[in-house]
Amino acid sequence: MARSGLFAIRDVGSLIHATAEEGTELKKAVGVTQLTAMGVGAIIGTGIFVVIGKGSGIAGPAVILSFVLAAVACVFSALSYAELSSSIPVSGSAYTYTYATMGEIVAWIIGWDLILEYGVSVAGIAIGWGGNLNAFLDSAFGVALPDAIAKSPEDGGIVNLPAVFIVLAITLLLVRGVTESARANLVMVIVKLAVLIFFLVVAFANFSTKNFHPFAPAGMDGVTAAAAIIFFAYIGFDAVSTGSEEARNPARDLPWAIIGSLAICTVFYVLTSVGALGIASPDQMKDSDAPLAAALDQGAGMSWAAGILALGAVVAITSVVLVIFYGQTRIFFAMCRDGLLPRRMAKVNQRYGTPARLTVTLGVLIAILAALVPLGTIVELVNIGTLFAFVLVNIGVIVLRRTKPDMPRPYRVPWSPVLPLLGVAFAIYLMSDLPLDTWIRFVIWLAAGLIIYGLYGYKHSLVRQRARDGQS
């Protein structure tokens, strides 16, 4: 029988059984290609189009090593996500894994954390989408949307209509079905990879080694400082695990998709950084909001290419909005199905096979946030929330190995618990580098979540209801 206290644990078999309950059953419709594209779609966004300039300004040409170091920091957590997602193919990602290993109260905390992380992330990315759309319209057609309909009131506008448009458009796509969403994302991933390949071809055709000296002007301190910034360009592979319940063959496909998407993005990131430094110096890129376009303009003399890169950025960000918003809906869905939030929100639309009511509700709330609120430093909450999830997922692997040693594991993290502990160490190290204001906001959000859990979630928890009824 399940424990009914604050640290009640959902049995893995019970979690998997819940996925087949009538009215809350999601459609199994995506394979390894679509799942890998989801990972690439979530990872490659503004990061590679912007962060390379900031990183090179800190580390110089050694920013190449920073990209590698950031990937290494992610890979330990990626391995843990691969093990848990293939072993527990249930929506909810880190929330669900924590429920199965550390108990309900910890699961609530991480679920509440992820709601903030994904919601703020989608709103912030949508605002960035509007800015990049304006950059594309300006570079390609010489026009731009007026500030009144392109910025929030605090930034001098009335409403950010482009941000509203992209959020609502993605909302409708997600309501239509996971198959349609996955197909659209695959097309966008192909487009943005094609834009990066275009950049690489031009860069290596005009390549010079003159910008590689001195290679590491700030030494290893510069490399690690740049890696702490670049790390956040890799965030997104965890969103793949939110689609585990809709995977046709989760045991086989999820490990390939999570690890594969991280590997693909690492290769593109390293090659892009090498190519950019082959045509432009760190000084030419470090102060630019579009460092790749600056590299082509100042280094290769191809100012017309800025329009192509701006288009690539718009497509890249659209893909990120889609995958991250998808991830949030599935985490919220899992929490509703478990009774920690209203169960009626977990109702699956029988026509589309998606939690349509939940998706539309979240879409409207995020659109309002994106339209009216300048997010500023609150976006740093995305970083601390992600790293907090990484810590608990890595610990979850270690705990589940001890408590359920005989549980089927299609994929196993090698050298456990060493690699999961390294994942914890890297995440804590990067969290310690975040500003105090971010920690204060994070604690306030978690405190508000604990109040909601005490007033609603604890009483309505499905685990607790079944324990009272004498069910397992």
TrEMBL record:
Membrane protein topology class: Multi-pass membrane protein
One cellular component (GO) term of this entry: membrane
Name of protein: Amino acid permease
Lineage, uppermost ranks: Bacteria, Bacillati, Actinomycetota, Actinomycetes, Micromonosporales
Pfam families from the UniProt entry: AA_permease_2
GO molecular function: amino acid transmembrane transporter activity
InterPro entries, per the entry: AA/rel_permease1
TM annotation in the entry: 32-52, 59-82, 157-175, 187-209, 215-235, 256-281, 301-327, 354-375, 381-401, 413-432, 438-458
Keywords noted in UniProt: Membrane, Transmembrane, Transmembrane helix
Protein location: Membrane
Superkingdom of origin organism: Bacteria
